[in-house]
Amino acid sequence: DSINSSLLSSNISMMDLLFDNRRFRVMPGNPDIKQLATDLIHDHKLEEPFFVCDIGEIIKKHVDWIHYMPRVRPFYAVKCNDSPLVLETLAGLGTGFDCASKVEMRKVLELGLSPTDIIYANPAKPRSHIVAAAELGVQTVTFDSKVELLKLKNYLPGARLVVRIRCEAERAQCPLGMKFGVNVEDAMELLDFAKSMDLDVVGVSFHVGSGCMDPPVFLRAIASARLLFDYAARELGYNLNLLDIGGGFPGNTGTSIAEIASVVNNALESFFPQGCGVEIIAEPGRYYVAAAFTLVTQIHSIREVKGDDTTRYMYYINDGIYGSFNCIMYDHAIVRPEVIGIRNADALDLFECSIWGPTCDGLDQVCSSEMLPKLDIGEWLVFGDMGAYTLVAGGTFNGFPLPKVHTVSSAATWNTLSDSMKTQAFVVDDVPVFPNSGVGYNRDAVGWGCVEGAVIGGVVS
Ligand code: PLP
C-alpha cells in the first residue's frame, strides 16, 4: 500500500520503471505515447527500435468486450502477442486462453491458471503436443479430420472435442478457411466417426478469418453450428454444450466491434438463446492487442534520389520485415509512419519517400511511398497499431535485434488494477470487469503486485 500511494502521489511520471520488460511506468493522466517515446529516447539515449505498450488499451478492449458481448467469454489467442505483461493482464482480467502448441499451453499455465482456462485450438497437432496437453491436464481441443481423432483417441482419450467447421468471411485480412475447418456435412461424418470410437464431442468452433470485414458471416457460421448441435443430439445422442465463435474481431481498423457484436448477439439469440445451456466462447487475438502497441524506430541512413524536377528520399530504419514488420508479409498489414520530435517550421514541406528495413535484403521494404518532411539521420518514426502478429513472428536476420517492450499505464488504470486485487471485481463505466467473478480466475495465483519498489504485473503468492 505504501508503495502504491508513493507511486500515485508526487511526480510519478519521472519514475523510471521501464528498463525491464516486466515493469511499467505509471503516468498521472492518459499516456501520450509519442511524448513518452520522445522522453525515453532523450533520457536513455536510445538507438534501438522499441515498443511502447499501453496496458490501459488492453483493459479498455476488455471492458468493451464485456459491454458488447456479455454472453461470450474471450479466450485470448496467445499466438497474436505473447508478451508477458499482455498475458498477465488478460489472466488478471479473467479471460481464458487459446493455445496453438505445448509451449503456449505451458506459458499460460505458468501464470497460475487452470487447464480448464485453455482451449488447445490448433486442429492439426503434433503427437508430442497432444501428449503434453494430456500431461498438463488440458482437455478441450479442436479437430477437423479423422486422422486427428485417431491421434486424440490414442494420446488424449478423455478429450473434450470441438469440431471446427469452415465458414469464411467474404473479406478478411487473413483468410484461414483454405487450411482448417470442414463443411457441415463432413463435420457430421466426423461426429459419426467420433461416436463410433466412443469419444466425447462437446462443441463446435469456427474462425471466419482474421481481420474479418464481413460481420454477417457470424450469422451464417452460428446458424451452421446449430445444424451440427441438432444433428449430434438427434442422431448420435451427444449433448453438445460449447460454441466457440473463434477470432476475426477488429484491431483498430476495418469493421467495429459494435457491428460484429450486434450480428453475434442476434444470431445467438436466434440459435442459442439465453438459458439454452450452451457456453459461448471466442478466441480474439488482434482485437485485444493491436492498438496497445506503438513501434518506435530510428532512421540510420538516407539516400537522395534526384528526378527531373523532384527529389525523393529513401529512409533506412532499424526495424524491418524480418523483425516487427513481418506483419506486412504474414498479416497483410499496411503500416503508416508518423514523425516524432520537435521540427523547425521550415522543415515541414512534404516529400515523397520510401522506408526500408535494416537488412541487406531488397525485399526488406516497410513503406513504398509516403509523403513526409525531409528527415535527418537520427530522427524517429513511430508506427501505431503494431501489437498484433508483429513481435511473435519476428526474427533477428542479419543480426538486428527485436525491439524491447516498454509498458505504460495511466494512474487511473493502475488504481483500478490495484483495486481489483483487493475486491476481485471492479466496475469501469458501469461495466463489471469480472462478470463471472471467481470463474476461471485464480485469484490466489495471478494478480498485480509491487516488487522492489517497481510496479509489475505478475504472479503474487
Ligand atoms: N484462433 C485461431 C485458431 C487462429 O488461428 C487465430 C488466428 O490465426 C485466432 C484465433 C486469432 O484470430 P484473430 O487475431 O483474428 O482474433
From TrEMBL:
Known catalysed reaction(s)? Answer: L-ornithine + H(+) = putrescine + CO2
Superkingdom, taxonomy of origin: Eukaryota
What is the top EC class of this enzyme, as a single word?
Answer: lyase
Domain named Orn/DAP/Arg decarboxylase 2 N-terminal: residues = 56-290
The source organism is Orchesella dallaii
Q: Which Pfam families match?
A: Orn_Arg_deC_N, Orn_DAP_Arg_deC
Subunit: Homodimer. Only the dimer is catalytically active, as the active sites are constructed of residues from both monomers.
Keywords tagged on the record: Lyase, Polyamine biosynthesis, Pyridoxal phosphate
Which pathway, per its entry?
Amine and polyamine biosynthesis; putrescine biosynthesis via L-ornithine pathway; putrescine from L-ornithine: step 1/1
Sections of the chain in a coiled coil:
none
The lineage is: Eukaryota, Metazoa, Ecdysozoa, Arthropoda, Hexapoda
Family listed:
Belongs to the Orn/Lys/Arg decarboxylase class-II family.
Which PROSITE patterns does UniProt cross-reference here?
A: ODR_DC_2_1, ODR_DC_2_2
What range(s) does the Orn/DAP/Arg decarboxylase 2 C-terminal domain occupy? 54-387
Family matches, as CDD domains = PLPDE_III_ODC
For activity, the cofactor(s) needed are: pyridoxal 5'-phosphate
Under the heading InterPro entries, the entry gives: Ala_racemase/Decarboxylase_C, De-COase2_C, De-COase2_CS, De-COase2_N, De-COase2_pyr-phos_BS, Orn/DAP/Arg_de-COase, Orn_de-COase, PLP-binding_barrel
Q: What does this protein do?
A: Catalyzes the first and rate-limiting step of polyamine biosynthesis that converts ornithine into putrescine, which is the precursor for the polyamines, spermidine and spermine. Polyamines are essential for cell proliferation and are implicated in cellular processes, ranging from DNA replication to apoptosis.
Entry protein name: ornithine decarboxylase
So what EC number does this one have? 4.1.1.17
